[in-house]
Amino acid sequence: MDFGFLYHAFGTVMLNPMNFFFVFIGLTAGIMVGALPGLTATMGCALLIPFTFGLPPVQGLLMLLGIFCGGIYGGSISAILIRIPGTPSAAATLLDGYPLCQKGMGGKAIGMSTVASFMGGTTGALVMTFLSPQIARVGLRFGPPEFFALAIFGLGMIITISGRSLLKGIISCLFGLLITTIGFDPLSGVPRFTFGSRDLLGGVTFIPALIGLFGYAQVFRNIEKMQIVPAVKAKVENILPTLKEIRSVLKTIFKSALMGTFIGSIPGTGCDIAAFVAYGEAKRTSKHPEKFGTGILEGVAAPEAANNGATGGAMIPMLTLGVPGDAVTAVLLGALTLHGLQPGPLLFRDHLDVIYPIFAGMIMAQFILLIVGLSGAKFFAKTINIDRKILTPIIFFLCVVGSYAMRFSFFDVGVSMIIGIIAYFMEYYEYPASPILLALILGPMAEGNLRRSLIISRGDPLTFFKRPISATFIVMAIIIMITSYYRIKKAMEKEA
Amino acid sequence: MLKRADMKRADIGAGIGLIILGTWIFWYSDAYRKVVVYIYGPNFFPQILSTLMVLCGVTLVVRAMRGKALAKRDRIDRQGFVRTVIAIGICIGYLYLMQVIGFAMGTSVFLFVLMTFLGQQGLMKRVISSIVTSLAVWAMFRYFLVIPLPTGMFDFTF
Question: Which of A63, A224, A460 to mutate to test the interface with B (most CBs of B within 10 A)?
Answer without folding.
Answer: A224
